[in-house]
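Dear support,

Our group has been running a series of protein-ligand predictions, and this particular one with alpha-D-galactopyranose is the one our PI (initials K.S.) wants archived with full inputs and outputs. We had some confusion internally about which version of the output was final, so please treat the block below as the authoritative record. The input we submitted was:
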Amino acid sequence: MSSLVTGSDRPTASHHPEAWVAIAPARVNLIGEHTDYTGGYVLPMAISFSTTATITAANDGKYHFKTSMSAEERTMDPHDRSERIGHWSDYVIGVLRQFQTLNIEPTPFVLELRGDVPLGAGLSSSASVEIATAQAIATFSGKSFMAEALAVLCQRAENQYVGSPCGIMDQFVVAAARAQHALLLNTRDLTYEFLPMNRAALASCRIVVANSMMKHSIADGDYGIRRREVEAGQAIMRNTYPNLRDLGDATLTQLESCRGWMTKESYHRCRHIISENGRVLEAKAAMMCGDPVQLGKVMTLAHASERDDFECSIDEIDFLVETALELPGCYGARLTGGGFGGCTVNLVEAVEAERFSQALQRAYRGRFNLSAETYICAAVDGATVRPASEQTARDSQS
Ligand code: GLA
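Confirmed final output from the archive:
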């Protein structure tokens, strides 16, 4: 990672502002679920919920962490190396630890977070906090990191400090996204390309996200259990096929030949992942032709695979998907993110998007007596950072 980090463009001390504002978006994944920890493809885009991290110098020799979402602040001595404490600040201190691992010891600061990313909705509130924090700390320390390096640093923070076994997708897209595009990422080598969201007939479609309001957390056990089942299956396949690097290389025929050695669970989890990698590439082809019918079809097939093979859906989400597919203008619908709650992502004709959202909310309330939220989303840019003075000027203009 070090080659992706430079300190060379650090302004001279007298010109280096003391206060910076970093803003990081949320994300929705169009397709490619649970493929990002076995070298597969993902196709997410960034959406306009965001986390803002403001960093300023502290004059008491300490690090201060504050958030608009909690009255509980945290203050820490720069030499403190304590472990996580099960507090919101674990996500930001995990990021700080990664800088310290790289021998970057920031001078004392106050870091304040504000944000509107729905929590526990599978829209990457954690990655948004991590990337905003990382961008703020890096810039405050006079370092410039490429988006790829920031993403890897934040994934490590989450894996090693928070203890949540996530893949790289969320941090990567939050750091590197481009407006009006989805990001096709190969999670084995982190090569990526931007696919336009507005080619041909896709230009008249919208991405509608429906929040079941059933909370999901990847720090909870189900994600880890699935991941272990996948990795057990992958290990068996590698034994049989030594040239296989990971499930990103595997075929369904190879999986069938190994079925007898695997648990039923590992077989089904691997079948989801191998077939999902194929679907991501089909989705790419559909996007490049601007074909919403084909894109919607693959998205809906992906949902069936998550529900039946990966078993990470829940009744509320299945209901949202089934109802969506009955509504006018909907091309495809599926569970997005880690699963076990959270949101669906729907591809919908723009002219129907409002009516679609309202009808979905009505049906959900009728069935579960719960209020689903819906968000009509545009694809936005990844994280940015600028001097606080510049941000204040922008805010006052808008
Ligand atoms: C969560 C994780 C990601 C990815 C998805 C499932 O969002 O953070 O790394 O594994 O679940 O695709």
